[in-house]
Amino acid sequence: MTRTVDGEHLVGQPIDRIDGPAKTTGGARFSAEHAYPGLTHAALVPATVSRGRITAIDTAAAAAVPGVITVLTHGNAPKLNPPKRPTPANLSTLVSGTQVNYLNTDEVHWDGQPVAVVVAETSHAAREAAALVHVSYERLPAVVDFAAEEPNAVAQKGNPVMPGSAKKGDADAALAVAPVTVDARYTTPQHHHNALEPHATTAVWQGDELTVHDSTQSITWLRKHLALRFGVPEAKVRVLAPFVGGGFGGKGFAWPGTIIAVLAARATGRPVRLLLTREDVHRAVGARTPSAQRVALGADTGGRLTALVHTSVTRTSRVGGQPEQVTAPAQHLYDATNIRTAQSQTTLDWMPNTSMRAPGDAIGSFALESAIDELAGELGIDPVELRMRNEPERNPIDGKRFSHRMLREAYALGARRFGWENRSPEPRSTRDGRWLVGMGVATAYHPAMQFTANVTVRLAADGTVTVRCGFQEMGMGNATVQAQIAADALGVPFEAVRVEYGDSALPASVMAGGSMQTSTVAGSVLAACGKLTRRLSTLARRTGMQGRTPTEILTAARVPFIDAAVGSDTRLGALAGQARMLAKVVRDQRTWAKAACGAHFCEVRVDADTGEVRVSRWTAAFDVGRVINRKTAFSQLRGGIVMGIGMALFEEALVDRRTGRIMNPSLSGYHVPVHADVPPIDIACLDEPDPTMPLGILGVGEVGITGVAAAIANAIHHATGSRIRDLPITPDKLVT
Amino acid sequence: MRAFSYVSAPDVATAVRAVSETPNAKFLGGGTNLVDLMRENIEHPDVLVDVSRLPLNGVEELPDGGLRIGATVRNSALAAHPLVRTRYPVVSQAVLNGASAQLRNMATVGGNLLQRTRCLYFYDTASPCNKREPGSGCAALGGFTRDAGILGVSERCVATHPSDLCVALVALGAVVEVESTRGTRRIPLTDLHRLPADTPQRETVLERDELITAVELPPVPAAANSRYRKVRDRASYAFALVSVAAALRLDGDTITEARLALGGIAPKPWRANEAEHVLTGARATEETFDRAAAAELDRAQAVGDNAFKIELTRRTIVATLRELTHEGSRP
Ligand SMILES: Cc1cc2nc3c(=O)[nH]c(=O)nc-3n(C[C@H](O)[C@H](O)[C@H](O)COP(=O)(O)OP(=O)(O)OC[C@H]3O[C@@H](n4cnc5c(N)ncnc54)[C@H](O)[C@@H]3O)c2cc1C
Ligand code: SF4
Questions:
Q1: Are A59 and A77 in contact (CB under 8 A)?
Q2: Which tens digit of pLDDT belongs to each residue from A134-192?
Q3: A23 FRET partner, CA 20 to 30 A, in A416, A519, B51, B250?
Q4: What's the rounded Cα separation, in Å, for the pair A117 and A70?
Q5: Cross-chain residue pair B120–A677, CB shorter than 8 Å
Q6: pLDDT in tens, A672-694
Q7: Do B120 and A131 touch (CB under 8 A)?
Q8: Topology (CATH) of B222-328
Q9: Closest ligand by atom to B304 CA
Q10: Do the two domains A34-141+196-246+251-284 and A148-191+288-448+594-735 of this chain adopt the same fold?
């Protein structure tokens, strides 16, 4: 059972991450850092047309580069099984980033699709040769302009974990008669993940046994996927990812680099390392879809919402792509009498889009939370007060109960820490030298979920504990947190717990995504520790050692260790586990509206002449349920805010609408925030456990980014009087 | 990147001879631009002659009060030099507003002058580009032109020169000293870079084998009250959307000397002669600044989506001159 948090317990403590020393001393090996005898290096050749057929590939010049071992194309690459059509009945089918059978087809489906790979003795030789591969195409008409395709969007299908459209009452009729309204269009561009570590794979075949070091967020599913694509039993595939240098969703699925590295290793019979270039990361890994959104709000003069309409258009591809829950926040945030949300998609000849930190919610909250601010302006009501007047008691769209919702408290706490009461209500009313100063606010909201993970925990007679679970660590601190939880549950010191993770040979876990890994693994660790505690008391009773330490009990019982397992990795066990998990997720969704939420407060300074924006102050107060580790959790929340600053002010893939080609596939052209763009970020958490989640955890990975762009846009409006509805908010938009 | 050979030159004569005698050889400074371009398969020299260790790394005071800056002085050393900081603060500020600390530690003055455009299509070998492949066309036209120029561009090429340092130097009337097997010549920096016209691939008046050995700054009394203002998309580590290098000498509220140059808006560092003409001898008022900006931007033309630059340049000129007036008139 959950224990209370007090000074004696580890849960809640800001414990240093256990992988910290390995990372800061260079001891941690990432996926491109594994040396194997005979290691070779691969480089991708990306297509330069958006749709077409390869008519010829001239590899002569490339093959002649000293050190080149082979150039693989669809003409000579080993056969590969095509990916399975995605179905929720087998979640591992979702893991294929695209439906393309790389180097097994002459068809090109997006500008950037790898059409050849060079394998060489050095990475320099591989890259030099890759640039010399000459590909001829028959170009086919391609649809690549998202803005032009918007009118052709069709309704997007929902699924059990991701609702599509929703409706309560007649929002359009209510809007038509509302005394005060806002009806506006917002757009967000395509975003790329750009984790510190580019995607990397080291693949080694020994006979039909495959070992893959891959920068994946999804060890278990990737293993299944590789087994399927390469036609070997799952038991022969081992995926290792103990260290991943950031993922944010961009490493959730299997992208071409991983598959092609394994293919190249099979073709050459030698170990292959493929480290994507920054350009490859942009061209050969899915991005966040661009969006065009409409938010229409109707209110009475007292500020009570009578109508809320939120619709979105996003992009998917002919060869795959994820739906996004852009309008989901509108179903949960405001107690509007009438609500309508609708999501639609265009289909383009484009790289399939993929999850990026808070998919849907991050961009949807920009539009919704900007519109609420606009409404506050129309009404002359303080934007925090307007939110409080519309804070629901039950989930607005369907009346479900909230398992936990402390948004009022988060607002009160954040406003106090930030000094919101000092804000003068008039836009453009505060100036400090050349700077126009403004304050903005917005709500953060991200659904909480729990899946199931298989875990084994061993308690040994020497007092040590080993937790084994194939989860992944991308820097979030999960290993540290699970050690804290196990130590508390078994009453042993933190140092006595070892956590093994990041290896598909371990009990299968969930992917790191949807902010659900920590709570999911915690649920299983707690259950396993509970089993161990019960067995220990049985042993204690039997040996007359009640009240003694685990070491004393096990020694007296002459047992070297005891094990407890949760879940099973047999085929049947896995199937049963997945069925149980889906049933639980659906049941949970039917019963509760469950989410982490929070309030962002920020101050911006806008140069009165040039429109340059600096974010100067930030306070965010969150309800994320129980905080297990203040250090790692706050760092996740802070990281989300930094990424949100990027979304608000800088990030934009420049896709040439004539060709569908990304023109800024580098960190020099694709701007992310630099240190000088990030102010000190003050984080506060209410730290109240959610009663329906293991240990009361609601997840911290994604909620941080939601609402950030709106808070900044609202602050810019307050500073300047200009309302910018198209991200990113660059100086040009403020000077014209 | 293609394989190449590398030699490090012990002295100027050897360096110049090596490049002159080897058909596809190039000088290498800090390599922060050239090596990037080689990695991106835009430049393919067979031989690199490293000049970064030549004994040209001093900053000397000239008898007339000017400065002689060696071509291999690192950007960071230039910015930190006491004489530069006190006599020509605009130079120091321009350098510190560019790139990152690591890059500035590597980059040389000579290399900075000759860095190439950041046009997105120039960097993409799959796109036609008249500068990279003469006669192939200009993909920027009709595409992304947010970073394109508003002055001095041609139908063949609308790219801008990206250097911050050059903008400050050109405002101060810097002169570039060049060495080749044919001897030494001195070129005013305003004449070093060419406008694209029909030959955007020819970016400067230098011959391939001409080595920059020094940059000389004349004494400029106004420079003590000078400023570099760079407007960019993020607080640091981004090229200029628009930049202004300005120096003003005031006698009461009358401008007795004015220097103005613009960056980010033209194929070369742009000395704002028209604006200087309006400013010199006029009263330092908002109205004068507006007129000066208008005179310079009279011929400015938007290319696709960069119309904002005309207004942004105007505002940045006025704001920079306003600041200098406040500071220059302080006792
Ligand atoms: C990520 C990034 C961001 C940057 N941001 C900025 C910025 O904001 N502002 C800015 O101004 N710059 C910026 N730069 C550019 C940087 O300033 C230049 O790369 C640098 O100044 C070039 O100097 P270098 O010595 O490294 O030149 P190199 O790369 O060595 O050479 C550049 C060119 O000059 C030639 N050359 C070098 N020395 C001589 C010489 N003595 N005589 C004749 N020819 C010579 C070379 O042959 C080559 O053609 C940035 C660069 C990068 C990579
Ligand atoms: S603007 Fe100049 S550099 Fe850019 S694509 Fe056109 S020709 Fe090339």
A1: no
A2: 999 999 999 999 999 999 999 987 766 666 789 999 999 999 999 999 999 999 999 99
A3: A519
A4: 8
A5: no
A6: 999 999 999 999 999 999 999 98
A7: no
A8: Enolase-like; domain 1 (3.30.390)
A9: 2
A10: yes
Q: Say if residue A87's pLDDT is above 60.
A: yes
- Residue A178 makes CB contacts below 8 A (sequence gap 6+) with A298, A299, A300, A306, A307
Please state the domain extents for chain A: 20-28+450-590, 34-141+196-246+251-284, 148-191+288-448+594-735
Name the average pLDDT for chain A. Answer: 94
Domain B5-50 fold is: 3.30.43
**Residue B146 with chain A: CB contacts under 8 Å:** 732
Q: Where are the domains of chain B?
A: 5-50, 222-328
Best of A41, A113, A732 to mutate (most B CBs within 10 Å, chain B): A732
In the predicted structure, residue A2 carries a pLDDT above the cut 50: no
* ipTM of this predicted structure: 0.97
- Which residue on chain A is closest to B233 by alpha carbon? A730
Contact A504, A237 (CB under 8 A): yes
Provide the b/e sequence for A82-99 (b: ≥16 CB within 10 Å).
ebbebeeeebbbbbbbbb
Query: Chain B: residue nearest A668 by CA?
Result: B238
Distance between Cα B29 and ligand 1 center (Å)? 7
| Ligand found nearest the CA of B111 | 1
* Ligand 2 closest atom vs CA B145: 1
- Which residues, numbered 634 to 653 in chain A, qualify as contacts with chain B under a Cβ-Cβ cut-off of 8 Å? 649-650
Confidence check: pLDDT of A1 > 50: no
B233 contact residues in A (CB cutoff 8 A) = 649-650, 671, 730-731
Rounding to the nearest 10 degrees, give the CA dihedral for residues A277, A278, A282, A287: 110
| B51 within ligand 1 shell (Cβ under 6 A) | yes
């590789």: which residue's tokens?
Answer: A226
Residues of A in contact with B326 (CB under 8 A): none
Q: Do B307 and A668 touch (CB under 8 A)?
A: no
Q: Which of B231, B236, B237 sits opposite A610 (nearest CB)?
A: B231
Percent of chain A scoring above 70 in pLDDT? 98
CA A671–ligand 2 middle distance (angstroms)? 21
CA dihedral (B271, B272, B273, B277) in degrees, to 10, reads -150
Distance between CA atoms of residues A662 and A193, nearest Å: 14
CATH 3.30.365.10, domain A34-141+196-246+251-284, yes or no: yes
Query: What's residue A449's pLDDT?
Result: 86
Catalogue the E-assigned strands of chain B. Answer: 5-8, 25-28, 47-50, 59-61, 67-70, 175-180, 183-188, 211-217, 226-231, 242-251, 254-263, 270-271
Assigned CATH class of A148-191+288-448+594-735: alpha beta
| A 38-57 → B contacts, CB under 8 A | 48
pLDDT at A7 over 70: no
**Residues of A with catalytic roles:** 702
| Helices A478-490 & A517-543 angle (0-180, nearest 10) | 30
Nearest CA to ligand 2 atom 6: B138
Give tens-digit pLDDT for B46-80. 999 999 999 999 999 999 999 999 999 999 999 99
Average pLDDT over residues A85-110: 89
Q: Could you report the per-residue pLDDT of B173-230, keeping only the tens digit for each?
A: 999 999 999 999 999 999 999 999 999 999 999 999 999 999 999 999 999 999 999 9
Nearest listed ligand to the Cα of residue B198: 2
Half-sphere exposure of B104 (CA within 13 A, CB side): 20
With an 8 Å Cβ cutoff, is A616 touching chain B? no
Class of the domain covering A20-28+450-590: alpha beta
Decide if A609 and B318 are in contact by the 8 Å CB cutoff.
yes
The strands making up A561-566's β-sheet, listed across from edge to edge, are A497-500, A465-468, A455-460, A561-566
How confident is the model over B240-245, as a mean pLDDT? 98
